[in-house]
Specification:
Radius of gyration: 20 Å
Structural class: alpha/beta
Mean pLDDT: 97
Bound molecules: NADP nicotinamide-adenine-dinucleotide phosphate, ligand F7E
Order of helices and strands: EHEHHEHEHHEHEEHEEEHEEHEEEHH
Shape: globular
Low-confidence stretches: none
Strand order of the largest sheet: 3-2-1-4-5-6-11
Length: 341
């Protein structure tokens, strides 16, 4: 394979780090944009940095996707054949606290990238990280590429702009741009403020005797949770097709936050029983009667997305992709990784 060069924004995030590893294994030269940080933000990239054969083909650039000039300079210099725009203020709850900033990073920045690519080389292929949050508060049982959107957070409205501006540039300028509508995907590299990693890391701390109680928000929210390492493969596959298109990536199964907690404790043989209602609901250990879970309204959102479940038939048919890791296995992978730490 010759001259495959990828640029990944958000390279040190969960998906960016898995995608960088995948592309390096495929022989790509990979450039990544990272923001300057006073603290170490490269923990997800440690596998790449420590492997000599990878590190030679891996280049990090300081930049920010709200800064058009830095995007321009990096694309001009690195000459990518594929750009994966994964950078985002990716926390839905936080987007209610910094809505204007979120719209700049998660919405307008995709336009910045599209404009720069159109100017430098419109043949560069682009992947845009769209999201199941676009469907928002929906009554539909299964969501696919034809389902209507009803975004209910500053995060999802910003991503809606990114989604549609990508379609506009695809049709208006004949550019190769794909939107990946990915449902929730998790891993040991997930940030600790997202519910799955928060649960697995707290459960391991509790089992290790920290004495803490898991404080949680909406126990009944349901998500279609997949494994991030498998999902990044679809980003690459989308850009290898003859024509650009949009794809839903999901497992087709949903579980509640409550079930995620139960399954995590279950790994250690602890059975959680529930008692009480609303803010007073608690989860306790059936055997010891010790309270292990409490509700904290701090984690409630001004608007909630109660449930999401995808239908990835198109991805299966066109990309030849289907998920392999089920819910139980995902919980196991995340718990084991916490134990290893
Ligand atoms: P993540 O772990 O939160 O990573 C986000 C990355 O974006 C981080 O590397 C972050 O860098 C970077 N970033 C944030 N603001 C930036 C800016 N202004 N300029 C440059 N970089 C910036 O997110 P993820 O889970 O990997 O998700 C990847 C993408 O997919 C995101 O766009 C997310 O919205 C979208 N998505 C995620 C899911 C999911 O379930 N994970 C589902 C659908 C869509 P710092 O370390 O400096 O903060
Ligand atoms: O919340 C509920 C919360 O923050 C999941 C991002 O990657 O996926 C992610 O967004 C559910 C919500 O993910 C807590 O109310 C209960 O219903 O892990 P989350 P998210 O909001 O679904 C989508 C597809 C993206 O695109 C986003 O970038 O869990 N929940 N208690 C809680 N959530 C958090 N964070 N913390 C709690 O204590």
């Amino acid at each position: 394979m010759k001259n495959k060069v990828a640029l990944i924004t958000g390279v040190n995030g969960q998906d960016g780090s898995y995608l960088a590893e995948l592309l390096l294994r495929k022989g790509y030269v990979v450039h990544g944009i990272r923001r300057y940080s006073s603290t170490n933000s490269l923990v997800n990239l440690k596998e790449i940095i420590k492997k000599k054969k990878f590190s030679k083909k891996f280049h990090l650039h300081y930049g920010d996707i709200t800064d058009t000039d830095s995007i321009y300079q990096i694309i001009k210099k690195s000459k990518p054949t594929e750009v994966y725009n994964l950078a985002a203020q990716s926390h839905v709850h936080v987007s209610f606290q910094i809505p204007e900033y979120t719209s700049q990073v998660d919405g307008v920045s995709q336009l910045r990238i599209l404009e720069v690519v159109k100017e430098i080389d419109p043949k560069i292929k682009i992947y845009q990280a769209a999201t199941s949050e676009l469907y928002g508060d929906t009554k539909l049982k299964f969501l696919d590429e034809t389902s209507g959107f009803n975004p209910v957070s500053p995060y999802s409205v910003s991503k809606l702009f990114g989604f549609y501006i990508s379609k506009v540039y695809r049709s208006a300028y004949n550019m190769f741009i794909c939107n990946g509508i990915l449902f929730n995907h998790e891993s040991p590299r997930r940030g600790k403020s997202f519910v799955t990693r928060k649960i697995t890391s707290s459960v391991v701390d509790i089992v290790n005797g920290s004495g803490e109680i898991l404080k949680i928000g909406n126990l009944n929210a349901k998500r279609d949770w997949g494994y991030a390492k498998e999902y990044v493969v679809t980003m690459w596959k989308m850009l290898q097709q003859k024509k650009p298109d949009d794809y839903v990536i999901s497992t087709g199964k949903q579980y509640s936050v409550r079930q995620f907690i139960e399954e995590s404790f279950n790994y250690f043989g602890i059975k959680i029983l529930w008692k009480g209602k609303g803010l007073n609901e608690i989860g306790y250990d059936k055997k010891t009667k010790k309270i292990l879970v409490k509700i904290d309204p701090y984690y409630f959102r001004p608007n909630e997305v109660p449930n999401l479940k995808g239908n990835s038939k198109k991805a299966k048919k066109v990309l030849g992709w289907s998920p392999k890791t089920d819910f139980k296995e995902l919980v196991k992978i995340m718990i084991k990784a916490e134990l290893d730490k």
